[in-house]
């Protein structure tokens, strides 16, 4: 079996194992997300606007919204039915814009302070650590470290991150697990947004890679063709952290999952420094940015409870459609 195929097969197995253990440890799979089906959202915070006489009179006037109202994912897992459909494409467009404006719309002073500190760390790394860490990494590398680094860098390949997303989606479909499909959708959004930003900035910044023997502060500006001038920032690190962060958040109740997934992502990022493909500041900035994007994507979906739904309403002397608004 080819290395790429073997890597994908192993990752699919790990996804199945991770989700299975998570369900064993927490069989209820309860979470704070709202089930996005009309029959499940009649709560105190639901506004009902009746549209009378729009349903056949044959329905019983004593009935309420049927418990067996058709739904594609009828289970009690407590998670919305996330799917890779046309709706995903539409939501992705909105999410991309929302990620960009999120700091202006939702951040508090403490959030700006945190962002300032993290950007300061990136700047300090760029100013003081890029050259020393490059020198140390190249001085200490050997055949053994090269072997492990070569395996770890595969984790950061875009097709591996895409494979992780696909594995969650396939698992969710096969075993009717809405949480797995939720992870797939959120990871896909995070991955696409993060890598999209990375690709644009890479070609606008034009930073020289360390293996060109250029100085760490050599920037050529916008260009499209020279891979040797696309060091800032690391695409491998961006890809794996954009997916790893979503998994860590969604499975945060299982203590071993977040540290395991973050350790794997960090090792994959470090391999790019070891292989002399990126400066340390490239990797640090990539991890911070993709982590931010992933967390924001998750938060935005948490806020998607404000939605309209149409559902049958049968009560008293009238029947019709109810326009439901959850807030």
UniProtKB/TrEMBL annotation:
Q: Does the keyword Ligase apply?
A: no
* Taxonomic superkingdom: Bacteria
Q: Where is the signal peptide?
A: 1-22
Q: Could you tell me the keywords of this UniProt record? A: Signal
Q: Domain Phosphatidic acid phosphatase type 2/haloperoxidase: where? A: 180-298
Q: Supply the name of the protein.
A: PAP2 superfamily protein
Query: What organism does the record attribute this protein to?
Result: Williamwhitmania taraxaci
